[in-house]
Amino acid sequence: MGTPELPVPGGLVLRPFRGVRFAVEDPAKVTSPPYDLISDADVDTLLHLHPNNVVRLILPRASHPGSAHAVAADGELAPETRYAEARDTLQSWLRAGILVPDDRPALYVYEQHGRHFLQRGLIGDVALTDPGQHVILPHEDVMPGPIADRLALMSTTQANLEPIFLLYDGSDGSTTRLVEEVATRRRPLVSAETEDGVTHRLWAIIDPSEIAVINADLRDRQALIADGHHRYATYRVLQRQERLAHPPTDPSPAPSDTTPAGAALSSDATQSGDAAAAASEPAHTSRAAGSQAPPPTTLIAPWDFGLALLVDSTAYPPDLKAIHRVIPGLPLAKAAAQARQSWRVQEFGTLAEGLAAFETSPDPAFLLADEGGAYLITDPDPVQLARAMPADHSDRWNSLNTSILSEFILPKVWGMRDDEQAVRIVHHDIQAAAELATSTGGTAVILKPLATEDVLAVAAGGERVPRKSTSFGPKPRTGLVLRTFAIN
């Protein structure tokens, strides 16, 4: 079977949708962090808050109350039934009224307010684009494992259960002004405070004229994927998969109250190749100024869009944190000894002492650690470093600490690949990384966060930083509003 022709949006498009929301007394108790930030212990904590927590949908497992599917020997759901469990749970909650779809399509203003931050944005259906269109910019590489996992979940449940996180330069545009007006003058649909002390509020924009204003403002803008690269790649693979399974045959237009101004899509006859590869290929072309769009078509399927939170980064600058690595089975002393062949290495008796020196050290610098001590590595041999870094990447890309780690330290210093089997990921928490290193007889690699301007410049140049290089925040909470294909 051939590759289907994919629609091409005329720009950055955010379509309203009928959100599916929990009908519970305290909405905070049924929400969760994004799926890739949840540990096994976190699952137990979330289910203790509420038996219908959204974690049962995004990370289904046998120990969830009421699980009726086969389990593997370790007590977890067998892989072939894990996603069926999520589908059945979703359908059961919809029938029981635990989850209820909103009456009308809407764009949702979403506010997160913590002790030291405030972020507001819009949740809606973002029209999917190829990276080459330079509309939605990926900045990070993806791995096939997480894409396969999320694809199985989305295709089985026929739903987007949590939004990706997009940033754009709003430049005090009409979208940002409308978001501010809604958040400060209108009554929210939802107001909930989660266990971390953050207040989450949600409003619905249903007025077609306001939705048209938003899409007219967004049309010529670009968005950076801040969080959710694997899910966005999954959206695109799912789009191809569903279009192969359900070729569009009905040329009738979509209902006018669900199609905003600027949302017309056109057929792209140049799409080809393997779906997973296409979803993750780097972008090398920019949007041509004044180029004429192909003739539009009214065929708009639900899988031509993906659930997303869009935030104006000029109004609400993001918080960019580091993601640390742990190398199981590589003892700290051995890692430091091997690093001495190409780096200056300083030993510290405690992790705290190492961190104090690390924070003031010039780049590139890394802290190797476990619970028993730390080694600061700085001043790499310039000849060895230059030889290791790829010539086909920009100088800015080659200067990133995650690039140096993936291209020089891991393969050349320690003789290993930067993959999911050899390298474990720990978001933000330095102490957790050190504890994991100790428990696995390994080494934690503590990194400094990348600069936002470096990430934006790399993405704008059509490059992608190595996997798990950035952690933008605050991330949207999962479970406040869901999207199902059947309802949309």
TrEMBL record:
This is DUF1015 domain-containing protein. Residues 243-295 are annotated as: Disordered. Pfam families: DUF1015. Residues 255-289 have a biased composition (Low complexity).
